[in-house]
Amino acid sequence: MKKYLVFLLVILLLSTACQTVNELPLKKETPHLAVIKQTGKANIVILNKDYKVVEEKKIGHFLIDGQVDGQTLYAIDPGIEQPLKNLYAVNVHDLSYQTLALPYIPHKIFIHDRVAYIATSSVSKAGFPFMLVDLDSFSLIDTFTVPGAVRSFIPVENGITLYVNTGGSHNYGPYAKKIRVGKRTAGKYAILETIETPQELPPNDVIWYQKKNIAVYAGFAKGPKPRWVKQPEAYTSKMKVLDPKTGSSLQEIDLDESFPQQIVRKGDLAFINHYTDLDMTGEMITVFDLKTMKQVDKIRSETPSFIALDGSHLVVANYVPGTVSVIDTQKRKQIQHVTVGERPSKVLVIPDHETALR
């Protein structure tokens, strides 16, 4: 009898232990990078701190742009065969999402102070519609028209600054404009200031360094030449130091590589990716010392469509091979290569939860 009771007790203990193990929640990987892809069975891919894929999902049809704010990825979808007008708010932990229908087809998104500034590809006689979304209520604040296609954004106090291209097939000459968007006294958003710039082309990207703006311009001396540029051979790829108030050029540096897309800064070093989505070519990231304004290195990376800083690492979305490269910014060498699938167009760093709450 005693042996029988002991046997039952052992069975009961084993059963309880197994049940406890089965009921324990699985430990979920902390999301660290979000990759937006333009095609494939999944168009959002999440990587952990070891740069390993931990989750992926198909959301919408064609995610053209996105940005992370806190623990949420905001992505815009203009559709492909049928036009869409959607903004998605995606939880990076489980890839659940909300959808906000927009009044115009979105093209670019920039987030600053919990407001999403969304440029459109729609066009009218007055210009290009522009949309603002309150991210706390996830609702449209307002729309108005800007006099040109938006190329780049700069965060400023009480709003943002836009660089736009106001030209067209029948309008040549200096037509890049600098526009400041912000709140008026009554709290309504509007264009507060428009500055004519001496450049024909607006910059692709702009950063802040020692009270000046450093901008990169994609020239057309090499590669595909759009019809709306009158003398494309006159426009070489450049990096310029700009007066932050007037937008005028204080210094110009010709770049060895064509089509600079972005410029990101790590201390006194600037990293520039060279890539064109006109024909999906490019194979170089150039490195500049901003103190001397001289190129100090080149890092090869096949079709680097987007770059972002992740602490001491530079992470690169490589469009054609479908990979993400991890580069040590000190040694300026690639240390990791991760396959994420077809056509990654953007890689975004997700702040840890404590940082996001600050």
Radius of gyration based on Cα positions: 24 Å
The amount of helix comes to: under 10%
Total count of helical runs of at least 4 residues: 2
- The helix/strand order is HEEEEEEEEEEEEEEEEEEEEEEEEEEEEH
Overall pLDDT level = 87
- Low confidence ranges: 4-26, 169-173
Across the major sheet, the strand order is 3-2-1-28
Which structural class fits the helix and strand makeup? mainly beta
How would you characterize the largest beta sheet?
4 strands, antiparallel
Task: Bin the strand percentage.
Answer: over 45%
Shape: globular
Number of strands: 28
Distance between the termini: 64 Å
Please characterize this protein's 3D structure.
- This protein has a four-stranded antiparallel beta sheet, with no helix packed on it.
- The chain is mostly beta strands.
- Helices cover 8% and strands 52% of the residues.
- The chain has helices at 2-23, 353-357; strands spanning 33-37, 44-47, 53-57, 65-69, 72-79, 83-91, 97-101, 106-112, 115-120, 128-134, 139-146, 149-156, 159-165, 176-183, 189-196, 205-209, 212-217, 238-242, 249-254, 260-266, 269-276, 281-289, 294-300, 304-310, 313-318, 323-328, 333-339, 344-349.
What's the topology here?
Blueprint (H helix, E strand, L loop, with lengths): L1 H22 L9 E5 L6 E4 L5 E5 L7 E5 L2 E8 L3 E9 L5 E5 L4 E7 L2 E6 L7 E7 L4 E8 L2 E8 L2 E7 L10 E8 L5 E8 L8 E5 L2 E6 L20 E5 L6 E6 L5 E7 L2 E8 L4 E9 L4 E7 L3 E7 L2 E6 L4 E6 L4 E7 L4 E6 L3 H5 L1
Antiparallel strand pairs: 1-2, 1-28, 2-3, 4-5, 5-6, 6-7, 8-9, 9-10, 10-11, 12-13, 13-14, 14-15, 16-17, 17-18, 18-19, 20-21, 21-22, 22-23, 24-25, 25-26, 26-27
